[in-house]
Specification:
Radius of gyration: 25 Å
Helix content: 55-70%
Distance between the termini: 73 Å
Largest sheet: none
Strand content: under 5%
Number of helices: 6
Length: about 130
């Protein structure tokens, strides 16, 4: 990949793998050279070892995080009349798309509920005002 050596084979497998993954992800970023990606990846792995070294670390699979990201993408992809296409694109059912939209709507309303007065003003006649 580059002239910068990777962690020595004596490095723990987890740190070598972390270095490899970070380097691959950085290398696909436009403008990041393979050498810069490898150097940064090594620094990340070394910092991870410094911060977490000697501790037992559980690495979750991140399902909730991944599902949350997928739900965000589903909400962004829906245009009002393309529920079936969105479902096919994400490999889920149309009903699931509707469920995701409903959850997103409820979450949005919980953060900023509609103001009842704004709705009343909309329907009041000019004489009442």
């Amino acid at each position: 990949m580059s002239s910068v050596p990777t962690m020595k084979s004596r490095a723990p497998e987890m740190l070598r793998e972390l270095e490899r993954i970070v380097a691959e992800q950085l290398h696909i970023v436009p403008g990041v050279s393979a050498e810069a990606a490898q150097q940064t990846a090594r620094q990340v792995a070394m910092e991870f070892a410094r911060q977490w070294g000697g501790q037992q670390v559980y690495v979750p699979m991140g399902r909730a995080w991944l599902i949350g990201e997928q739900h965000k993408q589903i909400v962004e992809a829906v245009r009002g009349n393309n529920h079936a296409q969105v479902a096919a694109r994400f490999g889920v059912s149309v009903q699931h798309v509707y469920r995701v939209l409903s959850q997103a709507r409820r979450a949005r309303l919980a953060v900023s509920p509609a103001t009842p007065l704004a709705q009343i003003d909309l329907f009041q006649s000019a004489e009442v005002r």
